[in-house]
Amino acid sequence: MNTFKRIWEKAAPNILLTGIRFLLASQNNKDRRKAVLQFFKKIDHKTLSPEIIEGLKYLKYHKFSAYPYRWALKYDHFTPAVYRDKQHQCYYVLFEGKKMYFPKRFTETQVIWVYRSIIKEQDSKSPHMYLTSDFQMDAGSVVVDAGVAEGNFSLSVVEKAKLLYLVECDSEWMEALRLTFAPWIEKVIFVEKLMSDVESNLTTSIDSLLRPDPNDTYFIKMDIEGFEQKALRGMKNLVTSGCNIKMDICTYHHPNDLNEIKATIIDYGFKWNLSQSYVLFFQPGEEPSFRKVLLRAEKSLQKTLNTL
Protein backbone atom coordinates (compact mmCIF):
# COMPACT_ATOMS: atom_id res chain seq x y z
CA MET A 1 0.00 0.00 0.00
CA ASN A 2 1.71 3.19 -1.16
CA THR A 3 2.10 6.34 0.92
CA PHE A 4 -0.37 8.37 -1.14
CA LYS A 5 -3.09 5.77 -0.67
CA ARG A 6 -2.51 5.68 3.09
CA ILE A 7 -2.78 9.48 3.35
CA TRP A 8 -5.91 9.42 1.19
CA GLU A 9 -7.59 6.76 3.35
CA LYS A 10 -6.85 8.69 6.53
CA ALA A 11 -7.89 12.09 5.19
CA ALA A 12 -10.92 11.33 2.99
CA PRO A 13 -14.35 11.10 4.65
CA ASN A 14 -15.53 7.52 5.16
CA ILE A 15 -18.71 8.09 3.18
CA LEU A 16 -16.66 9.25 0.17
CA LEU A 17 -14.31 6.27 0.40
CA THR A 18 -17.25 3.89 0.67
CA GLY A 19 -18.87 5.35 -2.44
CA ILE A 20 -15.66 5.19 -4.44
CA ARG A 21 -14.99 1.59 -3.42
CA PHE A 22 -18.54 0.68 -4.42
CA LEU A 23 -18.01 2.14 -7.90
CA LEU A 24 -14.54 0.66 -8.34
CA ALA A 25 -15.37 -2.84 -7.07
CA SER A 26 -14.08 -5.66 -9.27
CA GLN A 27 -16.41 -7.27 -11.76
CA ASN A 28 -16.32 -10.47 -9.72
CA ASN A 29 -17.35 -8.53 -6.63
CA LYS A 30 -20.19 -6.86 -8.55
CA ASP A 31 -21.35 -10.20 -9.98
CA ARG A 32 -21.43 -11.83 -6.55
CA ARG A 33 -23.34 -8.94 -5.04
CA LYS A 34 -25.88 -9.04 -7.87
CA ALA A 35 -26.27 -12.80 -7.63
CA VAL A 36 -26.96 -12.64 -3.89
CA LEU A 37 -29.62 -9.95 -4.29
CA GLN A 38 -31.29 -11.84 -7.15
CA PHE A 39 -31.26 -15.12 -5.21
CA PHE A 40 -32.90 -13.63 -2.11
CA LYS A 41 -35.37 -11.63 -4.19
CA LYS A 42 -37.15 -14.94 -4.83
CA ILE A 43 -37.48 -15.67 -1.11
CA ASP A 44 -40.29 -14.33 1.06
CA HIS A 45 -38.56 -11.85 3.35
CA LYS A 46 -41.11 -12.59 6.06
CA THR A 47 -39.29 -15.90 6.54
CA LEU A 48 -35.91 -14.21 7.05
CA SER A 49 -34.43 -12.96 10.30
CA PRO A 50 -34.05 -9.19 10.82
CA GLU A 51 -30.25 -9.57 10.63
CA ILE A 52 -30.43 -11.19 7.18
CA ILE A 53 -32.81 -8.49 5.94
CA GLU A 54 -30.38 -5.88 7.27
CA GLY A 55 -27.56 -7.56 5.34
CA LEU A 56 -29.54 -7.57 2.10
CA LYS A 57 -30.39 -3.88 2.49
CA TYR A 58 -26.70 -3.18 3.01
CA LEU A 59 -25.80 -4.96 -0.25
CA LYS A 60 -28.12 -2.75 -2.27
CA TYR A 61 -25.78 0.20 -1.72
CA HIS A 62 -22.41 -1.36 -0.86
CA LYS A 63 -19.97 -3.80 -2.39
CA PHE A 64 -20.10 -7.51 -1.66
CA SER A 65 -18.79 -8.46 1.76
CA ALA A 66 -18.87 -11.55 3.94
CA TYR A 67 -19.94 -9.15 6.70
CA PRO A 68 -22.61 -7.05 4.97
CA TYR A 69 -23.33 -4.72 7.86
CA ARG A 70 -22.59 -1.08 8.57
CA TRP A 71 -20.48 -1.85 11.64
CA ALA A 72 -17.87 -3.44 9.34
CA LEU A 73 -17.38 -0.38 7.14
CA LYS A 74 -14.86 1.27 9.44
CA TYR A 75 -12.38 -1.54 8.83
CA ASP A 76 -12.18 -0.77 5.12
CA HIS A 77 -10.21 2.34 6.10
CA PHE A 78 -8.22 0.90 8.99
CA THR A 79 -4.46 1.05 8.38
CA PRO A 80 -2.36 -0.50 11.16
CA ALA A 81 1.30 0.25 11.77
CA VAL A 82 3.42 -2.47 10.17
CA TYR A 83 6.98 -3.14 11.35
CA ARG A 84 9.88 -5.00 9.75
CA ASP A 85 11.94 -7.52 11.69
CA LYS A 86 15.24 -7.32 9.84
CA GLN A 87 16.76 -10.25 11.70
CA HIS A 88 14.00 -12.67 10.71
CA GLN A 89 13.15 -10.97 7.41
CA CYS A 90 9.41 -10.67 7.98
CA TYR A 91 6.75 -8.17 9.01
CA TYR A 92 4.81 -7.95 12.23
CA VAL A 93 2.08 -5.82 13.81
CA LEU A 94 1.22 -5.14 17.43
CA PHE A 95 -1.87 -7.00 18.62
CA GLU A 96 -2.92 -5.99 22.13
CA GLY A 97 0.65 -4.76 22.59
CA LYS A 98 2.18 -8.09 21.52
CA LYS A 99 4.13 -8.79 18.33
CA MET A 100 2.14 -10.79 15.76
CA TYR A 101 4.41 -12.09 12.99
CA PHE A 102 3.46 -12.93 9.41
CA PRO A 103 5.01 -15.36 6.91
CA LYS A 104 8.15 -14.15 5.16
CA ARG A 105 6.49 -14.04 1.73
CA PHE A 106 3.85 -11.56 2.93
CA THR A 107 4.20 -8.01 1.61
CA GLU A 108 3.37 -5.03 3.77
CA THR A 109 0.10 -4.62 1.87
CA GLN A 110 -0.87 -8.25 2.47
CA VAL A 111 -0.17 -7.83 6.19
CA ILE A 112 -2.48 -4.81 6.30
CA TRP A 113 -5.31 -6.65 4.54
CA VAL A 114 -5.02 -9.75 6.71
CA TYR A 115 -4.82 -7.75 9.92
CA ARG A 116 -7.87 -5.75 8.90
CA SER A 117 -9.75 -9.02 8.56
CA ILE A 118 -8.58 -10.21 11.98
CA ILE A 119 -9.68 -7.02 13.73
CA LYS A 120 -13.00 -7.01 11.89
CA GLU A 121 -13.73 -10.61 12.92
CA GLN A 122 -13.25 -9.73 16.58
CA ASP A 123 -15.42 -6.61 16.59
CA SER A 124 -18.01 -6.60 19.38
CA LYS A 125 -20.77 -6.84 16.75
CA SER A 126 -19.09 -9.57 14.70
CA PRO A 127 -20.54 -13.11 14.59
CA HIS A 128 -16.94 -14.40 14.63
CA MET A 129 -16.01 -12.88 17.99
CA TYR A 130 -14.48 -15.64 20.12
CA LEU A 131 -14.75 -14.13 23.59
CA THR A 132 -17.49 -11.91 25.02
CA SER A 133 -18.26 -10.40 28.40
CA ASP A 134 -20.41 -13.48 29.12
CA PHE A 135 -18.05 -16.09 27.68
CA GLN A 136 -14.42 -15.96 28.73
CA MET A 137 -11.56 -18.40 29.13
CA ASP A 138 -11.04 -19.20 32.80
CA ALA A 139 -7.64 -18.16 34.13
CA GLY A 140 -5.23 -21.06 34.33
CA SER A 141 -6.94 -23.08 31.60
CA VAL A 142 -5.24 -25.52 29.25
CA VAL A 143 -5.96 -24.16 25.77
CA VAL A 144 -6.11 -26.04 22.47
CA ASP A 145 -6.16 -23.61 19.54
CA ALA A 146 -7.01 -25.69 16.47
CA GLY A 147 -6.48 -23.68 13.29
CA VAL A 148 -4.24 -21.01 14.79
CA ALA A 149 -3.35 -19.10 11.58
CA GLU A 150 -2.20 -15.63 12.71
CA GLY A 151 -2.58 -16.53 16.38
CA ASN A 152 -4.84 -13.67 17.49
CA PHE A 153 -7.02 -15.84 19.75
CA SER A 154 -4.09 -17.44 21.56
CA LEU A 155 -2.30 -14.09 21.86
CA SER A 156 -5.37 -12.69 23.58
CA VAL A 157 -5.30 -15.41 26.26
CA VAL A 158 -1.63 -16.44 26.46
CA GLU A 159 -0.92 -14.59 29.69
CA LYS A 160 -3.94 -16.14 31.46
CA ALA A 161 -3.44 -19.69 30.14
CA LYS A 162 -1.61 -22.45 31.96
CA LEU A 163 -0.61 -24.18 28.73
CA LEU A 164 -1.33 -23.67 25.02
CA TYR A 165 -1.38 -26.24 22.23
CA LEU A 166 -1.06 -24.40 18.92
CA VAL A 167 -2.33 -26.74 16.20
CA GLU A 168 -1.64 -25.42 12.68
CA CYS A 169 -0.93 -27.48 9.55
CA ASP A 170 0.42 -24.60 7.43
CA SER A 171 4.22 -24.58 7.71
CA GLU A 172 4.54 -20.89 6.76
CA TRP A 173 2.20 -19.84 9.53
CA MET A 174 3.85 -22.20 11.97
CA GLU A 175 7.20 -20.52 11.32
CA ALA A 176 5.61 -17.14 12.04
CA LEU A 177 3.87 -18.49 15.14
CA ARG A 178 7.18 -19.63 16.63
CA LEU A 179 8.33 -16.01 16.48
CA THR A 180 5.05 -14.63 17.79
CA PHE A 181 4.97 -16.91 20.83
CA ALA A 182 8.70 -16.94 21.57
CA PRO A 183 8.22 -14.83 24.75
CA TRP A 184 5.96 -17.57 26.20
CA ILE A 185 7.84 -20.60 24.89
CA GLU A 186 7.73 -22.33 28.30
CA LYS A 187 3.94 -22.70 28.10
CA VAL A 188 3.41 -23.24 24.36
CA ILE A 189 3.41 -26.56 22.46
CA PHE A 190 3.56 -26.28 18.67
CA VAL A 191 1.75 -29.00 16.73
CA GLU A 192 2.26 -28.77 12.96
CA LYS A 193 -0.66 -30.99 11.99
CA LEU A 194 -4.32 -30.77 11.02
CA MET A 195 -6.78 -31.29 13.87
CA SER A 196 -8.99 -34.31 13.17
CA ASP A 197 -10.22 -37.47 14.91
CA VAL A 198 -7.11 -39.67 14.58
CA GLU A 199 -3.38 -39.40 15.16
CA SER A 200 -1.25 -39.80 12.00
CA ASN A 201 1.71 -38.23 10.25
CA LEU A 202 -0.52 -35.38 9.07
CA THR A 203 -3.29 -35.21 11.67
CA THR A 204 -3.79 -35.18 15.41
CA SER A 205 -6.74 -35.29 17.78
CA ILE A 206 -7.60 -33.64 21.08
CA ASP A 207 -7.53 -36.99 22.88
CA SER A 208 -4.07 -37.65 21.44
CA LEU A 209 -2.77 -34.35 22.81
CA LEU A 210 -4.37 -34.24 26.24
CA ARG A 211 -4.30 -36.35 29.35
CA PRO A 212 -7.27 -34.88 31.25
CA ASP A 213 -6.60 -33.74 34.80
CA PRO A 214 -9.70 -33.13 36.97
CA ASN A 215 -7.87 -30.19 38.55
CA ASP A 216 -7.55 -28.45 35.16
CA THR A 217 -10.07 -26.54 33.08
CA TYR A 218 -9.92 -26.70 29.30
CA PHE A 219 -10.70 -24.25 26.50
CA ILE A 220 -10.90 -25.55 22.92
CA LYS A 221 -11.10 -23.23 19.92
CA MET A 222 -11.78 -24.78 16.50
CA ASP A 223 -11.58 -22.91 13.20
CA ILE A 224 -10.34 -25.69 10.92
CA GLU A 225 -12.01 -25.26 7.53
CA GLY A 226 -14.77 -27.82 7.96
CA PHE A 227 -12.88 -30.39 10.04
CA GLU A 228 -14.67 -29.30 13.22
CA GLN A 229 -17.02 -32.29 13.28
CA LYS A 230 -14.12 -34.72 12.93
CA ALA A 231 -12.24 -32.91 15.69
CA LEU A 232 -15.26 -33.27 17.97
CA ARG A 233 -15.30 -37.01 17.37
CA GLY A 234 -11.65 -37.08 18.47
CA MET A 235 -12.26 -35.70 21.97
CA LYS A 236 -14.55 -38.31 23.55
CA ASN A 237 -12.04 -39.09 26.29
CA LEU A 238 -11.86 -35.44 27.36
CA VAL A 239 -15.65 -35.06 27.18
CA THR A 240 -16.23 -38.04 29.48
CA SER A 241 -13.41 -37.11 31.89
CA GLY A 242 -15.56 -34.91 34.12
CA CYS A 243 -13.31 -31.90 33.52
CA ASN A 244 -14.71 -28.41 33.01
CA ILE A 245 -14.60 -27.57 29.29
CA LYS A 246 -15.42 -24.51 27.22
CA MET A 247 -15.37 -24.42 23.42
CA ASP A 248 -15.59 -22.02 20.49
CA ILE A 249 -16.50 -23.99 17.35
CA CYS A 250 -16.86 -22.51 13.86
CA THR A 251 -20.03 -23.71 12.14
CA TYR A 252 -20.04 -22.06 8.70
CA HIS A 253 -17.55 -23.85 6.44
CA HIS A 254 -20.08 -26.37 5.05
CA PRO A 255 -23.87 -26.01 4.65
CA ASN A 256 -24.70 -28.73 7.20
CA ASP A 257 -21.97 -27.91 9.73
CA LEU A 258 -24.26 -26.12 12.17
CA ASN A 259 -26.82 -28.91 12.48
CA GLU A 260 -24.20 -31.66 12.68
CA ILE A 261 -22.04 -29.86 15.22
CA LYS A 262 -25.03 -28.86 17.31
CA ALA A 263 -26.24 -32.49 17.41
CA THR A 264 -22.82 -33.66 18.61
CA ILE A 265 -22.60 -30.95 21.27
CA ILE A 266 -26.04 -31.86 22.60
CA ASP A 267 -25.11 -35.56 22.60
CA TYR A 268 -21.97 -34.71 24.59
CA GLY A 269 -24.05 -32.93 27.21
CA PHE A 270 -22.81 -29.38 26.68
CA LYS A 271 -24.77 -26.22 27.27
CA TRP A 272 -24.48 -24.09 24.15
CA ASN A 273 -25.51 -20.93 22.34
CA LEU A 274 -24.81 -19.31 19.00
CA SER A 275 -23.02 -16.04 18.32
CA GLN A 276 -25.01 -13.06 17.11
CA SER A 277 -25.76 -12.27 13.47
CA TYR A 278 -24.48 -14.07 10.34
CA VAL A 279 -21.71 -14.29 7.77
CA LEU A 280 -22.62 -14.22 4.08
CA PHE A 281 -21.13 -17.32 2.48
CA PHE A 282 -21.02 -17.58 -1.30
CA GLN A 283 -18.58 -19.97 -2.94
CA PRO A 284 -18.51 -21.12 -6.60
CA GLY A 285 -20.98 -23.96 -7.14
CA GLU A 286 -23.03 -23.13 -4.03
CA GLU A 287 -26.11 -21.03 -3.44
CA PRO A 288 -25.48 -17.90 -1.37
CA SER A 289 -26.42 -18.30 2.27
CA PHE A 290 -26.30 -16.41 5.53
CA ARG A 291 -24.71 -18.77 8.05
CA LYS A 292 -24.25 -18.83 11.79
CA VAL A 293 -20.54 -18.56 12.47
CA LEU A 294 -19.75 -19.69 15.99
CA LEU A 295 -21.16 -22.10 18.55
CA ARG A 296 -20.08 -21.51 22.13
CA ALA A 297 -20.30 -24.53 24.40
CA GLU A 298 -19.65 -25.24 28.05
CA LYS A 299 -19.63 -28.39 30.14
CA SER A 300 -19.13 -27.77 33.83
CA LEU A 301 -19.40 -30.49 36.46
CA GLN A 302 -20.34 -27.93 39.10
CA LYS A 303 -23.06 -26.40 36.92
CA THR A 304 -24.39 -29.85 36.06
CA LEU A 305 -24.61 -30.75 39.74
CA ASN A 306 -26.40 -27.48 40.49
CA THR A 307 -29.13 -28.29 37.98
CA LEU A 308 -29.93 -31.76 39.46
Brief overview:
The chain has helices spanning 3-11, 14-23, 27-41, 50-61, 108-121, 152-157, 171-180, 206-209, 228-233, 236-239, 257-267, 301-306, and strands spanning 83-85, 90-95, 98-101, 142-146, 163-167, 188-191, 194-195, 203-204, 217-222, 244-250, 271-274, 279-281, 289-291, 294-299. It is an alpha/beta fold and 308 residues long.
Can you describe what's shown?
The protein has helices at 3-11, 14-23, 27-41, 50-61, 108-121, 152-157, 171-180, 206-209, 228-233, 236-239, 257-267, 301-306; strands at residues 83-85, 90-95, 98-101, 142-146, 163-167, 188-191, 194-195, 203-204, 217-222, 244-250, 271-274, 279-281, 289-291, 294-299. With 308 residues, it is an alpha/beta fold. The strands form 4 sheets. It has a 7-stranded mixed sheet. It has a 3-stranded antiparallel sheet with strand order 1-2-3. Strands 7-8 form a two-stranded parallel sheet. It is globular and about 55 Å long. The N and C termini lie far apart (59 Å). The model is unreliable at 3-10, 12-24 and 303-308 (pLDDT under 50).
